[in-house]
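Each field is set out underneath.
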Amino acid sequence: MKKIVSLILALALCLGTCFALASCKDKKSEIKINPDKEKYVVGICQLITHDALDSATKGFKDALTAALAAEGRTVEFKEQNAAGDSNTCTTIVNSFVAEDVDLIMANATVALQAAANATVTIPVLGTSITEYGVALEIENFDGVVGGNVSGTSDLADLDSQAQMMIDTLGLESSAKIGLLYCSAEPNSQYQVDCVKAYLEGKGYICQDYKFTDSNDLQTIAANAANSVDAIYVPTDNVAASNTSIINNVCEPKKVPVFAGEEATCTGCGYATLAISYYNIGRVTGEMAAKVLLGKTDITTLAIQYDDAAVKKYNEKACINLGIDVEALKAAGYVVIAGTEAE
């Protein structure tokens, strides 16, 4: 009897494994790819308008158009902007699914979340996403999302950003540092947690300043400017699209703002360790071409990163803050175009 029971259990385990493997194969085969099409239709859902995301979208369109043209193919873009609203992102990607587009490009975390929830059959590529594991709530993320999702990240080294802030400002160990970000953006929280851990490990006093949206940004930014010696702003979409609010609060008080990306630095910061959003957009476009043409399996396609981050500074802001611009140049910093002092 024991042998019979053992045999039955072994058979059940074998069948279960076979069903699991079949299920995985079915999931892979369900992803709709047609490498023989002459014209592809690609939906673009961009969360909000600001320079960084706009650059990523442009890079994506340029690269995908060129890559398909090289193969004698064309592409039609259906591009929509959600104006910062998560519900609108959902509406946009659902319309793309209803139209049965060939691929969806999701620009920013909320757009990616909406697209990933909307379809498991249409390929989805994200860009301007800091950490996919955080965005998609994947535990022990190994760099491959799996299924129908992949893309590019805008993550620059966060420890390096924190150290740059210390070095450029000559911060004493007693300095207070404010971390200003939107509470609705999980990847902003991720960046802040990493930077905060590094700074506190160096003995600095850190304080979170969370704003809900643009309506309370001025109040929260003012609270920070009145209480700290310097402010860190991550790659936060609400902050990036409202830099004038932050600048109008911090500039008169001469409170330095270290920014997580170049567009935010241009509007309200003094320095950044910046990746090129146009470049990560291009990489996403190149990935899209390979997926559409059947040259790459999206289920095993790892998230791509830009390793060419550049130390940059806002010259006008630095002069206003009394930061030695010549010392920055000597340290390898590059001035952000359009911020040069007259």
The chain has 14 helices and twelve strands. The radius of gyration is 23 Å. Residues 2-30 form the longest helix (29 residues).
